[in-house]
C-alpha cells in the first residue's frame, strides 16, 4: 500500500515540477494586441505581465480617450494571455497526475 502512495507522491511532485516549468516558459510567450484602429499596441506575457505599450501621439491630447483605448486593448490582451495560460497549465497538470480513482476531473 505504501509503495503505491509513494509512487503517487512522486507523480504529484513531477506534476508540480511540470507546472513550474510551464509557468517559467509562459514568461517567454508574448501576446500582442492592437486596438481596432492601430493607435494602441500592448504586449504581455502569457503569465499576464505587461511588457510593452505603444501609444499613437494623437491619443496623448485626450486623457479620457487614451484611458478608454488602454482599457479595451489591455482587456483583450489579458483575455488572450489567460486562455493560453489556462490551456498550457491544464496540459502540464494533466501530464503529471497519477491515476487516482475519483480524480478524473483533471483529464
From TrEMBL:
A cellular component term, taken from the record's GO annotations: bacterial nucleoid
- Bilayer-crossing residues are none
* Cellular localisation: Cytoplasm, Nucleoid
Q: What is its main location?
A: cytoplasm
Name the coiled-coil region(s).
5-32
Provide an example Pfam family for this protein: YbaB_DNA_bd
Xref: SUPFAM superfamilies: YbaB-like
User: What InterPro entries does the entry give?
Assistant: YbaB-like_sf, YbaB/EbfC
Q: How does it assemble?
A: Homodimer.
Q: What does this protein do?
A: Binds to DNA and alters its conformation. May be involved in regulation of gene expression, nucleoid organization and DNA protection.
Similarity comment: Belongs to the YbaB/EbfC family.
Protein name, UniProt field? Nucleoid-associated protein H9W90_05190
Which species does the entry assign this protein to?
Answer: Polaribacter pectinis
